[in-house]
Amino acid sequence: MGSHILMNVLDEQEMRVGVIRDGRLEALIHERIGEGQHLGNIYKARVANVEPSLDAAFLDLGAGKNGFIHIDEVIHDKGRNARIEQALQPGQEIVVQITKESIKDKGPCVSMYLSLPGRYLVMMNSEQAKGVSKRIEDQVVRKRLKNLLASFEPPAGMGFIVRTASADRSEADIRLDYEFLKRLWSEVQALSGRVRAPFCLYQEADVVVRTLRDLASADAQAIIIDQEKLYDEARAFAQVFMPEICDRIQFHREELPLFTYYGLEERVGTIYDRKVQLASGGTIVIEQTEALVSIDVNSARNRDSGDVETTALMTNLEAAQAIAQQLVLRDLGGLIIIDFIDMEDRDHQKLVQLALRRALIADKAKIQISPLSRFGLVEMTRQRTRPSHKLVASSECPYCIGTGSIKTAESFEIDCVRAIRQSLSSRSLSRLEVVVPQDLAVSVLNARHRELAQLEERFDCRILFTADGLMKAREFRLLPTARKGDRREREKPVRPSLLAPLMVEQAKAIALAKEIATMRPDDLERELDAGVPSTAPVATQPAAVQAPVVRIAPSVWEEAATLRRLLFSPNTPVAASAPLPSQNHGGRDLARSDSAARVPRRSRGRRRR
Description:
six-stranded mixed sheet; globular; alpha+beta; disordered C terminus; six-stranded antiparallel sheet
């Protein structure tokens, strides 16, 4: 049936591209006008600072946040195990390309491995770049393209990768692309030699040209654009690089908006929904967090099959197709965890894994997927080059602060009265005004009127409630009026906290981390295998030799007695550093001997490209 590509660029603030194939929305691209898309741009950058602890450096690109480059993305001659401080120095100028857009507080990721995409070829700054796309499976076609590739004479240090779109193209078409990329690289090199960092050497094409170059295949039946200026630009580009599809580029002249006219607007709105309905009645629930994307599969109303196992299998198979589609439509990337419905049959588990892998074949992003775990989870990673559509189109909720939930009315009432009591107890007040959201003012007074009256009588203070229609949900504000000439106007002394100071807790955490980091490999493996602390005994004070005693975990009362003795019996002959029974882990401490502490650390793992 082929594909239809709809380009909605009439809006002044956003450009959208929808790809429909065989009646199904296959891809959706959003791009905000004026926000500046930097993915694929090439810069002459200056090293701002080097971070040995990250084995990475930050680069000044000339605008916005500094770029981040890991040692694995640096081209150098310092050896395979070189550190970042050996490869780069502050103030050094290097040429890099943005490989991932900045997301929230993180700057863009960059690499010294450059690539210039054409319609049929990709030019890379590596002489080893001599290959044909794996998506071209016909061996005769692959051999023809490899022979053509061998006849090319790329610039020094450069190479070419043949793209999938070249499978049915003539040698003349591919050579035209080859000559264009050579000229483009020559211009980038010449500009790099003339300018000082930071400077943008190459800017990636706009969304219209990128769509024609990367998405418009030979089977595209129509490419419809709703803005005349970009329609003319698209035809001009196609006449040079893609003459076979030039006549298929159309201008949308209808009164109805493009996406509405072709029934796409309503479908696009569903990509922001948390829950996706499956045809059988099941659902998938997609939760996007800063750390990962979780996808939960539920059978919900699916009762078509006769038994639980078959219902789980059929729902999971259907969900695998929907998940692959939603990942592309929502542009989700990073770590993704899929919780399929539990299945006892191992063959059924393999079928679901196969269905998911097949559904992901058409995805152009780089994907790694793990087998189904014993907990019924599938872990996978998907290449993330830009923020997802949800992150671009939404902001943090001011009411729930991004948690997705707010306190119940009862919890709000408890917190409010608790704050009132604390304020009255700490100062001598004649009047306390409590400002609360309009929808909760009456409920607080009705539910807590007796307690509030008691507080007024006890502290001789009038408590007034004021409703504010503009206040955020589950928020309140106290406006106290102090009693003049009263000693109680000063803050009351507070009993020293039983909690350790935060700095002490942080120091303990750092000490424990260092202790674990210096463990010997054999001790580490033994403790992990046993699931208990290290067996290296540590004596806290001299003691007589005794027969081994089987230690039993102390009760709460024993813990309390020990704590009371340590706190309130200064003459008790117990070492100040002696741990509580439960902290001693059955008489064996987590601390290591001096000889063990001197063992050097194992070399940390290096990130693989």
